[in-house]
Amino acid sequence: MSTRLPADTILCGQVAAAFAPRRPETGRGGRVETAEAVAIHAGRVIAVGRRTDLLAAASGARVMDFGDAAIVPGIHDFHLHLVGMARARRDLRLDGVDLFAEAVAAVRTAADSLPADAWLRGRGWAEQLLAGRELAALANACARRHVLLYSHDSHSAWASPAALAVAGIVPGTPDPPGGRIERDASGAPTGILRESAADLVETVAGRLRGPALEEALDDTLAELAALGITGATDAGDTTDTNGIGAYAFLGDRASLILAARDRIDGRLRLSVNLPAAAIPAAAAAGIRSGAVVAGAGTIRWGWAKAYADGALGSRTAALFAPYTCGHTAGLGIARLTPAELTDIVRTGRGAGISAAVHAIGDRAVAMALDAIEHGGPRLPEAPADRIEHAQLVRAADRARFGELDVTASIQPIHCVSDRDLSEACWADRLSDAYAYRSLAAAGARLAFGTDAPIESVNPWHTLFAAMRRRMPDDGTPDWQPGEALGAATALAAMTAGPALAAGRTDVGHLRPGAVADLAVLSTDLTTLLAGDEPVADVRSLLTLVDGKEIHRA
């Protein structure tokens, strides 16, 4: 290389400049573009290549030699809940609690530790923990306090009698559209609320805000950086209520993120989704998907989030055929009608606001694809629409992702955590469950997320789950290995996939011209691409956003 490079910094190691997925049109496997060094100037990659060439061309640059460490494009978590992650650090956690008596004791202890007027928030209970239980013991443990406990999948909640009273839920309260209030034999609410019924309490419930939330948010951002995550899409809220500040019309979580803009900007390349109900107000404010938020550098407007159905864990994912696990859920819950969903997509079209549709069951996925097809053409500058989760997709619908240019926003960790539920509840259609390789082969653009705090935000668990279809060292065989992905395809879905889904060509790779978002990993490239158990322990030694250091181990 004879050209002089005005590089500020040169990083040496095993550079993976780009991950390319498997090509459906040829059937060839994915590939990795490799180099020995990457040169950075003014926050951008200006060269990748041989170590000796770059060092000779940029003799005055700072050189950081990481030996055999893999240097990769920064990971983008395409579906997480940033405020939810921060709040979860302060919530009562019931994940892994199997005994009802243990849950009752945990609630009693937590309730007794709070002031009388404070809300107790918690999450993580599994369906089997409360199913068929006499819930009076749980109510008694609350000592007349306001308590709201979300299930592991966040699509069901249990509210204490005091919380139900504040929300005005009494025996005669009708089920809201897209939700269900569970009742006992006498018709009285049990406290279990499905889907939009939980919003009745959520809108009046206390929530973590102020300095305590800011501290938890700082801790969350540090955690992401330490894992090599440089970008994320906040998945969005269910409603446009409880907002604060200048962006109160966008609801609780989006408005809180934007209020904390200066705390986040430069530490995370973040897209902020908004609730579908806020589309008219957002359009009036000039908000457009993909546009940079005023006053920010690394924060952009995301997609409008709509919920077509619920979740497998709560048996509320909307299906074409009944559940096979003996639950009374039948076909699940469609939170919107096809006409309502199409109207949401169409309303966003004219405003340049693209859609992100939560759809887990096969009926919901088909509804979402229909709505996107019939909602009219996107504006040229608007990013592609996306379907969140897509956990059960009929073979007939897989090709429609590519045909309609819809991003499959999926979380491989769900495949692992839901495998037993899938075998029990979707026993007659497992070939359509978490069919990631089939989706990719049909032409779908894959973009991976974690759904944190519902699941672990660790992207290396995501990589392992995508490649092995199980958790590391869990003693089980790979589940449906025919749907496993190769390393290049999986890593592309964690880097280039989210960038392309957002319409960005300068993110998700380390070719010249890209922004210098990268991570130097605690492993070599060979180990990373093997995707075996050691991958789960990968961390970042150095993380850069826009060429600026946000983490160093």
What this model shows, in words?
Among the domains are: 1-74 and 506-553, Urease, subunit C, domain 1, CATH 2.30.40; 91-202, Diaminopimelate Epimerase, Chain A, domain 1. 31% of the residues lie in helices and 24% in strands. The chain has an eight-stranded parallel β-sheet. Strand 10 (179-183) and strand 11 (189-195) form a beta hairpin. Helix 12 (338-351) packs across helix 13. The relative contact order is 0.14.
Quick take:
The chain has 553 residues and is of the alpha/beta class. It contains 21 helices and 21 strands. The strands form three sheets. Strands 5-12-13-14-15-16-17-18 form an eight-stranded parallel β-sheet. Strands 3-2-1-4-19-20-21 form a seven-stranded mixed β-sheet.
